[in-house]
Write a structure and sequence with these properties.
Shape: globular
CATH topology of the largest domain: Rossmann fold
Number of helices: 14
Number of strands: 14
Order of helices and strands: HHEEEHEHEHEHEHHEHHHHEHEEEEHE
Strand content: 15-25%
Oligomer: single chain
Distance between the termini: 15 Å
CATH superfamily of the largest domain: NAD(P)-binding Rossmann-like Domain
């Protein structure tokens, strides 16, 4: 994912410059160390030497940690893109360190936001910086930036969405006549499934995203254990019955508000063909907001690959500063 972001910054450099926007990458870290140049690294060089595992790259410091770079490299902003984990680490420590150093943070890592959303937002207010996380929930589908920009004076009453691309792809395969195992094999072949697929098929990944939505948009302090979760391992009979009545089945993430309490659910649901979520197919995602004044607003996007997630990250970077940003 990080490489996709660097490629995007390089590919869109001319467009960004024409808009008066400039991004300077001053350090890049991975599990082996960190490459640094506070005057700005060349994106093409980063990509070249990353493929060579940093061999003979004079700007690479083997063993230099991410945390050390966050604390001591001069930058305005930190992009945190480590893999998501149940306890949020190491991303949680990285984000905390960046906020404490009064640096903006943009992340695609949902783990830290699931376990410590409110703590992190308090840290942003204390240090006068921003933490943006559009890519954590539905790739490049606009969720948080849409709400922040367009619905300031409205009140959110509920949310429904398809937030896990892997299960949506697998459901489509089962609808075409496959069983769960065949759908899983096809999802692996097509690159939708990682080695540990249980978080996807058991609904855990979708539930984590729902927690972020609940805490960010409803200003709550929801924990993962408060979400009712059912996965898709036993979805075949539901799909057969839905096909008999010309309906569709989707793994639906849902938040409904009852006065001051939220009800959060993830599970397979039969939806009629007229429901906009019924048309979110393959590995696509979509979300429907239910507003007090604006009523139902639906948004979805076709997902093709990691560069679209990288675009959501890039857009967040630009939202933190309209003129120039140095990234760590």
């Amino acid at each position: 994912m990080g490489q996709s972001l660097i490629e995007l910054v390089e590919d869109e450099k001319r467009l960004l410059n024409s808009l008066g926007l400039e991004i300077s990458i001053v350090s890049v870290s991975d599990s082996n160390g960190t490459c640094i140049d506070e005057k700005g690294l060349n994106p093409s060089e980063i990509l070249k030497y990353k493929r060579l595992e940093w061999k003979n790259f004079r700007k690479f410091e083997k063993g230099r940690s991410v945390l050390d770079s966050i604390k001591h490299v001069d930058s305005d902003l930190v992009v945190e893109m480590t893999p998501s984990t149940p306890n949020g680490e190491p991303g949680l420590s990285n984000i905390k360190a960046a906020l404490a150093a009064k640096k903006h943070v943009v992340t695609s890592n949902k783990g830290p936001l699931v376990v410590a959303f409110n703590d992190l937002m308090r840290a942003t207010r204390k240090n006068g910086v921003r933490l943006l996380y559009e890519a954590t929930v539905a790739a490049h589908v606009p969720v948080f930036c849409l709400v922040e920009s367009c619905f300031k004076a409205d009140e959110l009453e509920g949310v429904r969405g398809i937030l896990n691309a892997t299960t949506n792809f697998m459901i489509g395969e089962i609808e075409r006549g496959g069983d769960f195992q065949k759908a899983l094999s096809e999802a692996k072949r097509a690159g939708w499934v990682e080695a540990n697929y249980s978080d996807d098929v058991d609904g855990i990944d979708a539930a984590r995203k729902l927690v972020i939505v609940a805490n960010a948009l409803f200003r709550k302090n929801v924990k993962l254990g408060e979400v009712s979760i059912t996965g898709i391992r036993h979805i075949e009979p539901i799909i057969r019955e839905a096909k008999r009545t010309n309906k569709k089945v989707k793994l639906i993430c849902e938040i409904s508000r009852h006065r001051d309490k939220l009800d959060l659910k993830v599970g397979p649901k039969v939806v009629p063909r007229k429901d906009p979520l019924s048309n979110v197919n393959e590995g696509d995602m979509g979300i429907e907001f239910n507003w007090k004044i604006s009523k139902k607003v639906f948004v979805s996007a076709h997902f093709q690959g990691p560069k679209q997630v990288a675009y959501a990250v890039l857009n967040d970077i630009l939202r933190t500063n309209s003129s120039g940003t140095s990234c760590c």
